[in-house]
Design brief:
The chain is of the alpha/beta class. About 35% of the residues lie in helices and about 25% in strands. Helix 2 (about 10-45) runs antiparallel to helix 4.
Length: about 200
């Protein structure tokens, strides 16, 4: 009876609740988030074979990799964005008849000083995520859909062609997240168990 009384009630309750929460988060990742992401990836894999659509006026994650067609009435700016091994992406911000600005990834270059003369016009390609200027921390708490961008099929002279749609660019980490939550729960339980053993 003396040993039982030495077990701190409040810390034990707190640790038990924390372990239960971590197990719940692990189950949520494996039983809810993972199947949804797998279904989403299957949809994205089928998108390139679907008929072309006009560039959407509002962001829609389900349209990633869809074929699109649009008209750039006037490029208001052409900017460079890092593209890893490809060097730089040149992205034109276009004025359209639909109203919202439309980013068009024209092509890539390894020359940091490269310039391109592009006057706009009809353009075809596929939908991808536009570069997100939000800080990483802000993105974690902002549920606003990421803006979309038209990745052009044919680059202007002087630029290399854009890469084809790559499904591996869409992360699917929910299995790893689930396993991590279970691991954290196990570590917390073991550490607290060892602490109780020393106390008793």
């Amino acid at each position: 009876m003396r040993d039982v009384r030495r077990i701190p009630v409040l810390p034990t309750i707190v640790v038990a609740l924390a372990v239960a929460l971590m197990i719940g988060l692990g189950l949520w990742q494996l039983l809810d988030r993972l199947p949804k992401k797998q279904a989403y990836l299957q949809q994205l894999a089928a998108n390139p074979a679907k008929p072309a659509i006009p560039f959407p006026t509002t962001p829609d994650e389900t349209l990633l990799f869809r074929r699109v067609r649009a008209t750039c009435l006037e490029p208001t700016a052409i900017r460079k964005v890092g593209a890893g091994k490809a060097g730089f992406r040149l992205i034109a911000d276009c004025r359209t008849a639909a109203g919202p600005a439309m980013p068009v990834q024209l092509g890539t270059t390894r020359d940091p000083k490269a310039q391109v003369a592009w006057a706009g016009g009809a353009v075809t390609g596929y939908l991808s995520h536009a570069p997100d200027a939000r800080p990483l921390i802000a993105g974690l708490f902002d549920s606003t859909p990421a803006p979309l961008m038209l990745v052009a099929d044919a680059p202007p002279p002087g630029l290399a062609a854009n890469a084809r749609p790559d499904l591996s660019a869409v992360p699917n980490n929910h299995l790893a997240y689930g396993v991590q939550w279970f691991f954290f729960a196990g570590v917390a339980a073991v550490i607290y168990g060892l602490a109780l053993r020393r106390r008793v």
